[in-house]
């Protein structure tokens, strides 16, 4: 037990003759760590991006609704009448006739 | 030398001992953290950095039948400013430009604003409110103002957004669309937003576990949400934005003209009961009108003469009268015990027939008809009204409908005068929508249907639920009676002596009944006010829409009669709907040219004065051959 600890502290597993296989394993563990850290970071980044995009989406939706509101309001007969009054136009009092040619 | 070595050893031992002690202390602390405080620490780590977060379900939108957006959820923005953040050079250079831009947007004095912001910077006030409830377009503009465009960290702009409900067609049908407010202690459920909140619009919030990654930013953890959110469904109403607009603007105009306290107008599709427009306008302190109370469903009133239709149907069904009956009230008054009922025309009409009595809206004739006909069996009259479901509410899906009040003989409030007064719409209470639904039943050949506000519940294009027409009573009266009253309702407008003859137009015949009910009459003559109404349908010969207009307390010094105040709103609505509905004429291609010309000639759209000169005729002549 004592020997095992001593060799661990001396770092003989890094320099001994059969160290090559140990190094391979160490590199493997190291690369696993790198992948794990990268994945965690990119996940965090994605959360930030999603947050940004959803805010932008909400903004665009709002813009759309505002546009729609303006269109809805301005196509109402009462606002049309007001706008066109200055040009001397007013709503017809007779219904249009739709002629269907069969 | 030895002495030196001993000293060194001593120091070494000291350092080693200190290090050992340090190590021991760390080990002790590690042990304590790992074993003693473990539970507590784990819990606080979880509560600080992990939590269950609610995923808000998106509230459904409300649409009109023609696809206009009536209510939806949008973000609104509140902007604060931290004036201590910006670098001195940036602040001094651009504060003038910023306050100039802000002054334009906020309509305030730029210099006052600049002073305010400078003062806040000096006093280290780090949260100066700039504006709240900003829409997205304006927020985007504001974000590009000087200093603000440097962002939160360098410029000091602080933006908070929250989801609010917007009504893009406001103020049209604003009260019917309504709102839903949950203030913890109280819930306010108004209109469709309130009535269809729970199972349709609101949806169901979800839950997920999140972990803190930065200040104010949390990331979801785990593969799935703890509970998936379910977005609310969309609601498609029966309203038509164009008819609603016409109704609203016409009503508004008339209310302003007569300085009335309140007014309402409802337009309903005769066959389906679909409510195409519902306007409720109440006068504000500044004499403008706004949609603040749904009187059409929530206001009980004595309908006055519009109720003569119900009395007439009862009397016809019970064979108390027929079309040949005449009434004989003398001098325009009819006595019941020690009380008199008067006609609106001083001196009365002399002996008159049933149809004339209805057309001129004779109070005495109706009092005579009902009082004489039913005085031995008043229950029969009330039973007849009950059999037509007049005593039952319509059962609307929105809150606030009042139950009608039609007393039964013997009930508290019933007296020997009741029959005579009920005959022309007093001593009983109904809501305007209940009156309209009844008139609609007449237009619909006796089929009494429930007014409908909503046609579909949808998710996107997918229909989740469709609302069909609900029949309250398949036939409120015999078809013979219905035919008679349809004819009489048309005569109210058509006959030159009818109370609503002013509304007559040969192009689109209207049928209906005027009503001018007195209110506060119990407090003396000078306290009397009026409720002026008109209920009916159009076109009279082939009804498509029924409509009621009620105007509360028009200025007593001006006109007060139903035909003068409420009637024109009705006519205007009818006329515009008529003008917007195209005539459809089918022409076959193989039809002779002359026939087509004839057909178009029947209904010329525009009268064109012929400007064809002789020369033109000559030029065109050969090609015609």
Structural notes for this entry:
The complex is a heterodimer of chains A (102) and B (625). The model of chain A has no long low-confidence stretch (mean pLDDT 87). The longest helix of chain A is centred in the middle third of the chain and has 56 residues, at 19-74. Helix content of chain A is 76%, strand content 5%. With 102 residues, chain A is mainly α. Chain B is of the alpha+beta class and 625 residues long. In chain B, the strands form eight sheets. In chain B, strands 2, 3, 4, 5, 10, 21 and 22 form a seven-stranded mixed sheet that branches. Chain B has a six-stranded antiparallel sheet with strand order 13-12-11-26-25-24, sandwiched between helices. In chain B, strands 1-8-9 form a three-stranded antiparallel sheet. The longest helix of chain B has 35 residues, at 2-36. Chain B is elongated, with a radius of gyration of 37 Å. Mean pLDDT of chain B is 87; it is low at 596-625. The interface between A and B is large, with 32 and 44 residues.
């Amino acid at each position: 037990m004592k020997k095992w600890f001593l060799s661990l502290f001396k770092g003989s597993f890094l320099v001994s003759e059969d160290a090559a296989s140990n190094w391979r394993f160490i590199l493997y563990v190291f690369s696993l760590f790198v992948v794990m850290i990268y994945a965690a970071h990119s996940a965090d980044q994605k959360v930030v991006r999603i947050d940004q995009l959803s805010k932008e989406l909400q903004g665009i939706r709002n813009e759309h609704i505002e546009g729609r509101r303006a269109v809805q309001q301005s196509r109402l007969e009462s606002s049309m009448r007001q706008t066109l009054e200055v040009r001397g136009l007013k709503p017809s009092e007779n219904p249009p006739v739709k002629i269907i040619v069969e | 030398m030895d002495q030196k070595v001993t000293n060194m050893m001593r120091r070494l031992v000291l350092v080693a001992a200190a290090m050992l002690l340090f190590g021991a202390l760390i080990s002790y602390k590690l042990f304590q953290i790992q074993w003693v405080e473990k539970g507590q620490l784990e819990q606080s780590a979880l509560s600080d950095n992990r939590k269950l977060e609610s995923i808000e379900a998106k509230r459904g939108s409300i649409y009109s039948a023609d696809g206009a957006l009536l209510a939806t959820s949008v973000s609104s923005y509140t902007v604060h400013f931290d004036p201590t953040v910006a670098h001195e050079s940036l602040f001094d250079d651009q504060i003038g430009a910023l306050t100039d831009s802000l002054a334009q947007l906020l309509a305030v004095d730029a210099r006052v604003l600049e002073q305010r912001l400078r003062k806040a910077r000096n006093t280290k006030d780090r949260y100066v409110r700039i504006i709240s409830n900003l829409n997205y377009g304006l927020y985007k503009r504001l974000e590009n103002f000087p200093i603000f465009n440097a962002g939160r960290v360098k410029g000091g702009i602080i933006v908070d957004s929250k989801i609010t409900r917007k009504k893009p067609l406001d103020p049209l049908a604003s009260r019917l669309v309504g709102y839903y407010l949950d203030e913890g202690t109280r819930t306010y459920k108004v209109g469709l937003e309130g009535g269809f909140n729970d199972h349709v619009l609101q949806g169901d919030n979800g839950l997920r576990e999140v972990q803190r990654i930065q200040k104010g930013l949390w990331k979801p953890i785990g593969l799935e949400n703890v509970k998936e959110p379910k977005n609310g469904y969309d609601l498609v109403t029966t309203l038509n934005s164009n008819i609603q607009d016409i109704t609203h603007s016409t009503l508004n105009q008339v209310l302003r003209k007569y300085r009335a306290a309140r007014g309402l107008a409802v337009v309903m599709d005769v066959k389906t009961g679909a409510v195409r427009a519902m306007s409720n306008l109440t006068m504000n302190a500044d004499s403008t009108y706004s949609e603040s109370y749904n009187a059409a469903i929530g206001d009980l009133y004595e309908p006055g003469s519009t109720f003569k239709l119900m009395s007439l149907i009862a009397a016809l069904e019970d064979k108390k009268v027929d079309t040949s009956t005449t009434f004989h009230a003398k001098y325009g008054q009819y006595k019941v015990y020690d009380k008199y009922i008067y006609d609106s025309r001083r001196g009365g009409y002399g002996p008159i027939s049933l149809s004339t009595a209805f057309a001129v809206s004779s109070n005495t004739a109706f009092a005579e008809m009902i009082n004489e006909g039913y005085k031995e069996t008043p229950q029969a009259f009330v039973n007849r009204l009950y059999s037509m479901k007049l005593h039952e509410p319509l059962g609307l899906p929105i809150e606030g409908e009042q139950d009608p009040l039609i007393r039964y003989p013997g009930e508290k409030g019933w007296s020997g005068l009741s029959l005579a007064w009920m005959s022309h719409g007093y001593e009983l209470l109904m809501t305007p929508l209940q009156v309209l639904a009844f008139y609609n039943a007449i237009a619909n050949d006796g089929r009494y249907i429930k007014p409908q506000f909503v046609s579909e519940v949808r998710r996107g294009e997918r229909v989740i639920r469709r609302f069909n027409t609900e029949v309250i009573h398949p036939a409120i009266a015999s078809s013979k009676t219905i035919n008679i009253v349809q004819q009489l309702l048309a005569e109210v407008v058509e006959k030159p002596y009818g109370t609503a003859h002013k509304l007559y137009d040969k192009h689109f015949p209207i049928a209906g009944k005027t009503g001018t009910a007195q209110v506060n009459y119990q407090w003396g003559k000078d306290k009397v006010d009026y409720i002026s109404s008109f209920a009916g349908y159009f076109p009279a010969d082939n009804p498509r829409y029924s409509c009621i207009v009620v105007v509360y307390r028009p200025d007593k010094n001006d006109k007060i009669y139903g035909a003068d105040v409420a009637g024109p709103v009705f006519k205007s609505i009818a006329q515009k709907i008529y003008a917007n509905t195209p005539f459809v004429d089918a022409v076959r291609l193989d039809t002779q040219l002359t026939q087509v010309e004839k057909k178009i000639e029947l209904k010329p759209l525009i009268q064109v004065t012929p400007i064809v000169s002789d020369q033109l005729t000559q030029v065109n002549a050969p090609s015609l051959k």
